[in-house]
Amino acid sequence: MGFLAIVLIPTQAGAAYIGYDNLSLTPLIWKPSKTFQTPSGYVTACISGVNNSANTYAIDAYKDDGIGAGLTKLGAISVNSNPNKCVTFPTRAVADGTNGKAEVYVRIGNVRYSDSSVRVEISVN
Q1: What pLDDT digit, counting tens, does each position of 68-100 carry?
Q2: 18, 49, 48: which is closest to 34 by C-alpha?
Q3: What element of type H or E holds 62?
Q4: In a domain? residue 41
Q5: d(Cα 61, Cα 74) in Å, to the nearest integer?
Q6: Half-sphere exposure (CA, 13 Å, Cβ side) for 83?
Q7: What is the CATH number of the domain that holds 43?
Q8: Cα(12)–Cα(44) distance, rounded to whole angstroms?
Q9: Domains of the chain: total
């Protein structure tokens, strides 16, 4: 008899799943994720694995067009309750360049409590 494991990935309906990164949360330090190659659309970051339900943090999203082109801030969201949640940023990431993708990353900071392993999943709608 075999064992079947089902993993639920929290994303919004109709969103294209892009990938994930594992981060640690540390008060007074902003932690950036890796850069994700995405199509054009609204970026959603789903945070899971926050152990302390009283934890709070801020999450920012950026489109990085590389050296010389600069960063475009897609939004900043404060999470003050239920720290395991999905947030969608208000500014649309636009794909460009030779690869036809938007280079997007998020960063988490203003953390109340440390947490050694938090998962950030990125999707685009």
Answers
A1: 677 899 999 999 988 999 999 999 999 988 889
A2: 18
A3: strand 57-64
A4: yes
A5: 5
A6: 23
A7: 2.60.120.510
A8: 8
A9: 1
What DSSP string describes 106-118? Answer: EEEE--SS-EEEE
Q: 47, 59 in Cβ contact below 8 A? A: yes
Regarding beta strands 43-48 and 16-25, do their DSSP bridges make them parallel or antiparallel, or are they unpaired?
unpaired
Residue with tokens 């994720």: 33
What is the residue range of 68's domain?
16-124
Answer for the pair 80, 43: CB distance below 8 angstroms, yes or no. no
pLDDT at 7: 39
Q: State residue 20 phi and psi, 5-degree precision.
A: -145, 165
3-state helix, strand, coil in the chain (%, to 5): 0, 50, 50
Structural contact between residues 118 and 50, judged by C-beta atoms closer than 8 angstroms: yes
